[in-house]
């Protein structure tokens, strides 16, 4: 009696597990029930769209996590290092500042180093060099962020393509059956449309959100870096010659003040 009860329970669970597996599989494949024997078949065009969107979703998560780490504020503007450079400039250790900014990898160092290299040409040239270096640093980072923008723009289009394809499948099913389509078969086309749209939005929303957030962070950090460099080189505005005399090669002594 107990064995019969176990067998009955197992028989009831098997259809449920098959239904669950089919439902889970429909996330990754477009499964249609149109074979003459009633067995399932995979609609490969719609399935390939879903797998393409899933691959783009993985790439999207990788790009977001990687670019988020690379574009942290402390990587663009390390405040401790900037304060150290200001202190060294106040102490007159100009050559050490030049050496440290040449080997440090932040955007702030690149901007300050570009400004200091123009010291022999005067304060105005230093300010222009700092502004230009800031623009170049920002453009480089914007280019590396651009793949996120591309994913955010393209993925909804692929999702829309899957949506249109799914609707076409649904109408073809209705036409093929003379208006008496099996609801299960008809649902396969509608499911393709909804799943493709889902994956497209799942990629686009975080991609565009992360792109806008990181772009604004890069813009803000670059602007602050340029402002800090401007404040640093203002120590050597017209009327002071210590920076110029310290950075010009000794073979070509300069007696003029920074203009």
The SSE string, one letter per element, is: HEEHHHHHHHH
Give the number of helices: 9
Low-confidence stretches: 2-24, 248-259
Strand order of the largest sheet: 1-2
| Proportion in helices | over 70%
- Backbone shape: rod-shaped
- Percentage of residues in DSSP E strands: under 5%
Output the structural class: mainly alpha
Number of domains: 1
Largest sheet report: 2 strands, antiparallel
- The count of β-strands is 2
| Rg, Cα atoms, Å | 32 Å
Between the first and last Cα atoms, what is the distance in angstroms? 104 Å
Mean pLDDT: 77
Description:
The chain has one domain. It is 77% helix and 2% strand. The protein has a two-stranded antiparallel ribbon. The model is unreliable at 2-24 and 248-259 (pLDDT under 50). A hairpin with an 8-residue loop joins strand 1 (30-32) and strand 2. Helix 5 crosses helix 6 and helix 7 packs antiparallel against helix 8. It is mostly helical and 259 residues long.
Features:
single chain; 259 residues; mainly alpha; two-stranded antiparallel sheet; 9 helices; rod-shaped; disordered N terminus; disordered C terminus
Sum this structure up briefly.
The protein has 259 residues and is mostly helical.
How are the secondary structure elements laid out?
Blueprint: H1 2-25, E1 30-32, E2 41-43, H2 44-70, H3 73-76, H4 79-90, H5 94-103, H6 107-117, H7 123-176, H8 183-233, H9 242-247
Antiparallel strand pairs: 1-2
Helix pairs in contact: 2-7, 2-8, 5-6, 6-7, 6-8, 7-8
């Amino acid at each position: 009696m107990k064995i019969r009860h176990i067998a009955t329970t197992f028989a009831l669970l098997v259809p449920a597990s098959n239904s669950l597996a089919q439902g889970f599989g429909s996330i990754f494949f477009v499964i249609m029930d149109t074979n003459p024997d009633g067995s399932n078949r995979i609609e490969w065009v719609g399935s390939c769209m879903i797998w393409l969107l899933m691959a783009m979703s993985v790439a999207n998560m990788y790009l977001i996590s990687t670019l988020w780490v690379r574009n942290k504020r402390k990587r663009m503007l390390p405040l401790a290092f900037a304060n150290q450079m200001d202190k060294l400039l106040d102490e007159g250790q100009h050559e050490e500042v030049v050496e440290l900014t040449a080997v440090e990898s932040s955007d702030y160092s690149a901007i300050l180093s570009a400004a200091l290299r123009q010291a022999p040409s005067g304060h105005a040239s230093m300010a222009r060099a700092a502004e230009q270096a800031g623009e170049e640093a920002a453009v480089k980072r914007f280019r590396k962020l651009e793949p996120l923008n591309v994913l955010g723009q393209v993925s909804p289009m692929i999702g829309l393509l899957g949506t249109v394809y799914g609707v076409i499948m649904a109408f073809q099913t209705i036409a093929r059956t003379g208006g008496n389509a099996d609801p299960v078969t008809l649902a396969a086309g509608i499911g393709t449309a909804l799943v493709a749209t889902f994956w497209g939005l799942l990629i686009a929303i975080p991609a565009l959100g992360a792109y806008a957030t990181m772009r604004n962070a890069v813009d803000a950090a670059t602007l602050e870096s340029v402002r800090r460099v401007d404040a640093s080189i203002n120590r050597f505005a017209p009327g002071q010659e210590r920076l110029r005399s310290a950075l010009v090669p000794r073979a070509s002594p300069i007696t003029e003040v920074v203009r």
